[in-house]
Hints:
Blueprint: H1 10-25, H2 37-53, H3 59-78, E1 83-87, H4 94-97, E2 105-110, H5 112-122, E3 130-135, H6 141-153, E4 158-162, H7 171-181, E5 187-195, H8 197-213, E6 234-241, H9 242-248, E7 275-282
Parallel strand pairs: 1-2, 1-4, 2-3, 4-5
Antiparallel strand pairs: 5-7, 6-7
Amino acid sequence: MNDEPLIRDVSDTARWVAAYRAQETERPDAAFRDPFARALAGERGERIAQAIAKSGDYSWPLIARTYLFDRYVTRLVKAGVDLVVNLAAGLDTRPYRMELPASLRWVEVDLPDILDYKESVLGDAKPVCAFERVRLDLTNEDARRGLFDRLGRSSQRAAILTEGLLIYLMPQAVGELAEDLTRPASFQHWVIDIANRAVVDMMTQQAGGATHMAGAPFLFAPAEGPAFFTAHGWSPAEVRTILKTAGKIGRLPIMMRPFALLPESDAPRGNMPWSAVCLLARSN
């Protein structure tokens, strides 16, 4: 056990993020609440979070990211989305913890091992909406296209979520995924998180060694920011930076709070660290 790596595979990063969701949930001023997070993180998730905390506070951007994805889900559902497809869903529990209409369909997709683990922990917990769990390797292009086509035919207006996924992909793979997501006409919106090279380099210094050894290095950091997706069928409709959001909800470290006073930026500027959650709309 002592020789086992801190992060064994990319699925362990989901346990790590769940530990931060648990910490946020237990705050009296929680920006969101996930009653399942502590159990899903487990001892390993707690250990990863504690080990990475020694190199710096990594929780606030992930809390801000979760908060923003929650807000976009709420808005999109209120605007008439009838299907949410969560790709690389990991240990996400939104269909269990958020206020969603029973008529909404929610489909989560990920590798069998992580979904089997989540099922075992959630036990008899029931989602609040119609729910489907799909075990699929998203690098299998034929399989994912078949899934997208099937889901697209069953929806009038769908939204896609990829929280914490794209950063692990090469730019070409991100472009191919984006184009596959334009195949169904009903796939109208896509919520992503994105960071520039300055942020990815900082992440690599803090946690990248552990994720790299687990075969999950941080890769995607397009210099043009959300504009990367315009060549692949998607247009940025709204951009919310992690820094400004963390300041808004009171999660920025003290030394970083003055930076939250800067104007919102919808794209990276020079070498300044920049990360955001973006709502994309199909452009073709």
